[in-house]
Design goal:
Blueprint: H1 5-30, E1 37-40, E2 44-46, E3 50-54, E4 58-61, E5 64-67, E6 73-77, E7 80-83, E8 88-90, E9 93-103, E10 106-108, E11 196-207, E12 210-212, E13 236-240, E14 243-246, E15 249-251, H2 272-276, E16 291-295, E17 298-301, E18 304-306, E19 324-328, H3 337-340
Parallel strand pairs: 1-4, 2-5, 3-6, 4-7, 5-8, 6-9, 7-9, 8-10, 9-11, 10-12, 11-13, 11-14, 12-15, 13-16, 14-17, 15-18, 16-19
Signal peptide: 1-25
Keywords: Signal
Length: 342
């Protein structure tokens, strides 16, 4: 019996490509423009930067819907939208606009925001021989860094900032999170920022699932670039409805800074190469937490929300700055510009 491994690999590749293409075709056929209902019960893959899925009466999701590009946008519009318990929607930005919205599954935009050292609050490269890269901030430049001598003795802490104004629900800006700073070379990248989720239900939102827009951890140090990359900042999540209930989870947390090259406190015997290059192996700074905005006049929910900054225990680095959670009964936000047009 003769088995050709090269032929087997080729067949597997063809089958995978067929599966991906079939997924795209299913989305086109099951959710054609003008459909009354759309039920997504098989895996679907989206390749475009912006995709609108709409139906007149109901959109029902109960499987994987995955956008392959980091900063892609999925906009979902219908009278009723249901994200059932087996559904897992992944994209850079997800917008849901409907009369009724029920979520039992997962909408995940973790690490789908701006890349390393990019965005409105990017981290930066290490600023001294004793620092790791700087963590990402949501507004303004990130300033969280972990600072240590060759014995790992000290920590310096800062956070992203919002110009000269006090950030509040009136001047809030909905966007994806910023990337953490890279290390001393491009071999050590900062974590990507979290994505963005916008849900606008004109009657009721039942949130029993999981919404996440957290930043990625920074990469650990490597030989030749011994300091860790900065953690990405959290993104933003906006929920708007006259009534909100449920007991789900909503997170927009910062990513932790990358570890030193060996994952422990720098030691001259373990990291002689780093010292020869005058690099002292500090962890990356932690990313700032993101933002959550809940706008509703009637709240009867047990939703768990967190915008905690990244946590890096190595060298007892100080946590990234926490983000903010805003509540309002009157301040409704219009859909993002890219979600207004079909």
């Amino acid at each position: 019996f003769f088995f050709d491994y090269a032929m087997a690999r080729w067949l597997v590749s063809v089958l995978l490509l067929c599966a991906l293409w079939t997924g795209k075709g299913l989305l086109d056929s099951e959710c054609a423009v003008g459909s009354s209902e759309c039920r997504i019960t098989r895996p679907h893959y989206v390749y475009e930067e912006q995709t609108v899925i709409s139906a007149d009466s109901e959109l029902y999701f109960n499987n994987v819907l995955h956008c392959t590009q980091h900063l892609c946008t999925l906009t979902i519009k219908s009278s009723r939208v249901v994200v059932d318990s087996n559904a897992h929607i992944t994209a850079g930005m997800v917008n849901i606009i409907a009369n009724e919205v029920g979520i039992k599954g997962v909408i995940n935009t973790d690490g789908r925001g701006h890349g390393s050292s990019q965005g409105p609050g990017p981290g930066d490269v290490p600023i001294s021989l004793y620092d790791g890269a700087i963590g990402g901030g949501y507004y303004g430049p990130g300033r969280t860094r972990c600072h240590g001598s060759s014995f790992g003795s000290a920590v310096q802490f800062g956070k992203g900032e919002y110009g000269d104004e006090e950030e509040n629900v009136e001047n809030f800006d909905h966007h994806v999170g910023s990337g953490g700073g890279q290390g001393r070379t491009t071999d050590v990248l900062g974590g990507r920022g979290g994505g963005a989720i916008y849900i606008n239900a004109s009657t009721i939102l039942v949130m029993d699932g999981r919404l996440t827009a957290s930043g990625q951890p920074g990469m650990p140090g490597v030989d030749g670039s011994c300091d860790g990359g900065g953690g990405g900042s959290g993104g933003s999540i906006m929920l708007q409805a006259p009534m909100v209930n449920g007991s789900g989870v909503v997170y927009a947390m910062g990513g932790k800074g990358g570890a030193t090259i060996d994952g422990r406190q720098a030691d001259i015997n373990l990291l002689q190469g780093c010292y020869d290059a005058q690099q002292y192996g500090s962890p990356g700074g932690n990313g700032e937490g993101g933002r959550i905005v809940l706008t509703t006049p009637t709240v009867h929910h047990g939703i768990q929300m967190s915008v905690k900054g990244g946590v890096q225990n190595e060298w007892a680095c100080v946590d990234g700055a926490d983000g903010q959670i805003f509540y309002s009964s009157t301040r409704y936000f219009n859909p993002p510009e890219y979600a207004k047009n079909d």
